[in-house]
Amino acid sequence: MSAIEIGSFEDFEKYNGQELGASEYFQITQKQINLFADATYDHQWIHTEPEKAKTQGSFGNTIAHGYLTLSIVPHLWEQILKVNNLKMMINYGIENFRFAHPVLVTDQVRLVASLKSVVNLRGTVKAEVSVKLEIKDQKKPAFTGVLVFLYHFN
């Protein structure tokens, strides 16, 4: 699936209340988990010690940090929506967010997004996007929530 192209508030309005699409699957690796642990100083063994996680953990392997799964949203989001004519985009908020299922090392995940609402605030477009991070071959998503973006068009 190719990304939807948006260049104005009017383009956004066409998708109000609709599913926007899904990204490609993205595999989580131990290297990514370790680099994220280094960046955030969160070296909890359920993330960074594979042998201990296999023998003493509840999941049978290391798991990605919840915030690591959230941090890949920009990469996956750009596969769903391409915004043209953009001066600036701001991450404005996260609402009703829940980490529902752990993402194990080597799991493949993809972002599924729907445009919950879009409002023109005197030239700034506020978009509320319902998201879920699906885990391949799992019924429960890794997370669900609403991301709020502010788009400033040229």
UniProtKB/TrEMBL annotation:
Signal peptide: none annotated. It holds the Pfam family MaoC_dehydratas. Residues 13-132 form the MaoC-like domain. CDD domains: NodN. This is MaoC family dehydratase.
